[in-house]
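Per your request, structure below.
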């Protein structure tokens, strides 16, 4: 497989405070990586560095398309739009931002762009919402709209920060099902931050566990069979995380 992203000896700081130390990993084309760890472990900061939104004091971030930052990546942030019913933008306008951000001046939406926008709305089964105001939508609907915004430019890499934390279980399962299809059927590489290590193991292919340093990176099978991880987490906790090995 070919790598799409390589992080080498990355160290990140806020002022003098070191948030992440000497992080190295490679994401291959078609990977679906769950990034997990306790609160304050540096998960969101790592994503911001990959996207070029946070400077790093040491290390390298390399993309296989030759870009110096994450401009070829789609991004779904942690916080959805506030449920402000007078928020004026429609769903179609929100999704169009995903195309405008990549255009050079003058920036405008063409007829061809509207075809792309309507196609992604149809794929995510929210075409009926395109003229509705974003602030009038439910949390699950808003997340689909923001996912459409991230996908409308056909990114090679999709980066999501706790995308389903505010969704109820049924909507969360549907949302993860969409991501799984994008990964398996369309080959989109996904980096997904989550606090729920056991649940995302049902969907992602690899785990990257952070606790201000890289504790583990590899497949769930490797994690579940690792003596080092048994020592780190304890046998009971490791067993609970290993949903694929409940009979081991």
């Amino acid at each position: 497989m070919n790598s799409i992203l390589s992080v080498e000896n990355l160290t990140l700081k806020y002022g003098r405070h070191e948030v992440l130390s000497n992080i190295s990993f490679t994401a291959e084309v078609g990977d679906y990586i769950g990034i997990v760890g306790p609160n304050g472990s540096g998960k969101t900061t790592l994503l911001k560095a990959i996207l070029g939104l946070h400077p790093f004091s040491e290390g390298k971030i390399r993309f296989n398309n030759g870009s110096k930052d994450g401009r070829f990546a789609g991004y779904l942030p942690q916080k959805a739009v506030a449920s402000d019913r007078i928020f004026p933008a429609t769903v179609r306008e929100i999704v169009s931002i995903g195309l405008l951000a990549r255009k050079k001046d003058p920036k405008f939406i063409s007829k061809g762009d509207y075809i792309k926008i309507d196609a992604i709305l149809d794929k995510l089964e929210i075409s009926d919402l395109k003229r509705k105001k974003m602030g009038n939508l439910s949390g699950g609907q808003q997340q689909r709209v923001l996912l459409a915004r991230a996908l409308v430019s056909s990114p090679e890499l999709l980066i999501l920060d706790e995308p389903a934390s505010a969704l109820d279980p049924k909507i969360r399962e549907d949302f993860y099902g969409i991501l799984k299809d994008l990964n398996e059927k369309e080959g989109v590489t996904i980096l997904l931050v989550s606090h729920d290590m056991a649940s995302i193991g049902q969907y992602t292919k690899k785990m990257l566990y952070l606790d201000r340093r890289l504790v583990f990176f590899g497949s769930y099978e490797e994690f579940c069979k690792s003596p080092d991880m048994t020592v780190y987490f304890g046998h009971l906790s490791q067993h609970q995380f290993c949903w694929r090995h409940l009979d081991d």
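The radius of gyration is 19 Å.

Regards,
D.
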